[in-house]
Amino acid sequence: ILNVEQSPQSLHVQEGDSTNFTCSFPSSNFYALHWYRWETAKSPEALFVMTLNGDEKKKGRISATLNTKEGYSYLYIKGSQPEDSATYLCALYFGNEKLTFGTGTRLTIIP
Amino acid sequence: DGGITQSPKYLFRKEGQNVTLSCEQNLNHDAMYWYRQDPGQGLRLIYYSQIVNDFQKGDIAEGYSVSREKKESFPLTVTSAQKNPTAFYLCASYGTPNTGELFFGEGSRLTVL
Prior knowledge:
The complex is a heterodimer of chains A (111) and B (113).
Chain A: E1 5-7, E2 10-14, E3 19-24, E4 32-38, E5 45-50, E6 56-59, E7 62-67, E8 72-77, E9 86-93, E10 99-101, E11 105-110
Parallel strand pairs in A: 2-11
Antiparallel strand pairs in A: 1-3, 3-8, 4-5, 4-9, 6-7, 7-8, 9-10, 9-11
Chain B: E1 4-7, E2 10-13, E3 19-25, E4 32-37, E5 44-51, E6 54-57, E7 64-66, E8 76-78, E9 87-94, E10 102-104, E11 108-112
Parallel strand pairs in B: 2-11
Antiparallel strand pairs in B: 1-3, 3-8, 4-5, 4-9, 5-6, 7-8, 9-10, 9-11
């Protein structure tokens, strides 16, 4: 079973500050890397699906990068807001219709 | 609105009882999945189904059973054989081909007393 690791496990960030966290994995052939945001009492929702080395995606204040050769992806949040509080999940898709998930990073924004 | 509905949200069960968690989707997706979440662990795949009347075991299928009689429905039964059933269960369906983006329900929390 492939290990997808996320760090840190949790972090607290002051409102307005920027932050980032990491998804790391053994370099291997995969079709896509996913980021999901999971707010409390809601469904996880896809943020980004990244497929190519060097991919960069952006949605508002949130962006992500992918480095397949060195086996990591970063998720950045600029100017954190309370609504960014959530658990952020990373997952790898190998084209077999299954995803392998990391343990998640739990982000809390302090007003 | 299109989406995935799981029920019940909370469920309590006595040891030795089977319990069935419901998952319904109106997204017209072929593939559906059941994941389990435990504290400090990533989502782990229990069962998945790529088409009606067919399903495959995931990484932790022991003590669980599923059926896929209709495209819209993928119920999960937690049997008395599951040694540690207290957990949070998420149902999902498969969206865009080639990238595997999942759409999730809001989950069901099962507590065994």
